[in-house]
Amino acid sequence: MTKVKNRVLVSMIILMIGILAACGETGAPEETNAKASGEKTEPVTIENMGRTIVFEEAPQRAVSLNQHATEIMLALGLEDSMVGTAYLDDDILPALKEAYEKVPVLSEQYPSQEVFLGAEPDFVYAGWKSAFADQALGSVEELEQLGIQAYTQASSNTNAPTMDDVFSDIQNIGRIFRVEEKAEALTREMQEKMDAIHSKVKDVEEPVRVFVYDSGEKEPFTAGQNFLNEMITLAGGENIFREIEKGWASASWEEVVKRDPEVIVIIDYGDTTLEQKKNFLLNHPALRGVTAIKEERFIVLPLSAAAEGVRGPIAIEELAKGFYPERFE
Q1: Which of 8, 15, 20, 170 lies 20 to 30 Å (CA to CA) from residue 133?
Q2: What is the 3-state secondary structure (H, E, C) of the chain?
Q3: pLDDT tens, position by position, 133-182
Q4: Domain count, the chain
Q5: Within this chain, do residues 230 and 301 fall inside the same structural domain, yes or no?
Q6: Would the pTM count as exceeding 0.85?
Q7: What contacts 88, CB < 8 A, 6 or more positions away?
Q8: Are residues 168 and 35 in the same domain?
Q9: Where in the sequence is the domain holding 263, given as residue range(s)?
Q10: What pLDDT sits at residue 196?
């Protein structure tokens, strides 16, 4: 399992170095100079989660919540416009670590309202709408009354999100911070990486059957029509529970056996270790006849790789290589 984790880490480093290098080759100096000189720009209007938000100027004191939102901010080079961040699921991407260390960490999970307001933010970007629950920061309407504008990652809070939905979020953040060229470069490089991977699996006649195991012993908690379902498809696979309309849902072991997955994707996070999850599956009496169990075909992804962010190409490559290793030799 250590070798698997190391391989994923190497893939992350290589892909993100390429993506960030492409961003650095765009017209970023003009964007940076405009911001530094205090040059006035036209107001930017964004539609987000049923709300119309007008940004008269780029935020100067942003807080990011949830890992995929934080990594999008850092991939766009916005660390100098950030006064806080919170709620990582995994280690930050190696290519973004230096930028991340420049940003104050407000909390391991959602910060209290007191801690959040103490950072004196003018903008908050959350990956999940749970950030704006009463027990977290409070509603976006309440924050707006305090002069704090809010953006929620739309692709993380919709049914059956696609990669285009993720790109839309990235481009919206680019518009809000007036770094549109960086956002275009980032999404273009991500698309090119995915196209290169997909080209190796697009002619597969019978997609490999895939079961996603998040957690659960009495019944499995698995992926339905969420972003991981999209990535499995782009990698040339077929999610055996793709008809479930919810993003994550409970299924039954009987259905897992009936659908006979050829590969199992384990989501590595939480108090249950990767080894414990794998051993549970391998020793489950009902699963002994399942192809993936007999052949011990497992792919491991961190929780952050299943979220709608810059890790999409990394996860798709890891999935495709696990589905069809012979096509990547």
Answers
A1: 170
A2: CHHHHHHHHHHHHHHHHHHHHHHHCCCHHHHHHHHHCCCCCCCEEEEECCEEEEECCCCCCEEEECHHHHHHHHHCCCHHHEEEEECCCCCCCHHHHHHHCCCCEEECCCCCHHHHHHCCCCEEEECCHHHHCCCCCCCHHHHHHCCCEEEECHHHHCCCCCHHHHHHHHHHHHHHCCCHHHHHHHHHHHHHHHHHHHCCCCCCCCCEEEEEECECCCCCEEECCCHHHHHHHHCCEEECCCCCCCCEEECCHHHHHHHCCCEEEEEECCCCCHHHHHHHHHCCHHHCCCHHHHCCCEEEEEHHHHCCCCCHHHHHHHHHHHHCHHHHC
A3: 999 999 999 999 999 999 999 999 999 999 999 999 999 999 999 999 99
A4: 2
A5: yes
A6: yes
A7: 67, 70, 108, 304
A8: yes
A9: 204-328
A10: 96
Low-confidence stretches of the chain (pLDDT beneath 70): 1-40
Q: Does residue 183 share a domain with residue 133?
A: yes
Q: What is the pLDDT of residues 188-219, one digit of tens each?
A: 999 999 999 999 999 999 999 999 999 999 99
- Same domain, residue pair 34 and 86: yes
Identify whether residues 130 and 244 lie together within a single domain. no
User: What are the backbone dihedrals phi and psi of residue 27, each rounded to the nearest 5 degrees, phi first?
Assistant: -80, 40
Joined together, the tokens standing for residue 103 give 């940003």
Residues 173 and 243 in one domain: no
Same domain assignment for residues 93 and 229? no
Instruction: Give me the pLDDT at residue 32, please.
Output: 46
* Domain end residue (candidates: 131, 166, 195): 195
- State whether 56 and 140 are in the same domain: yes
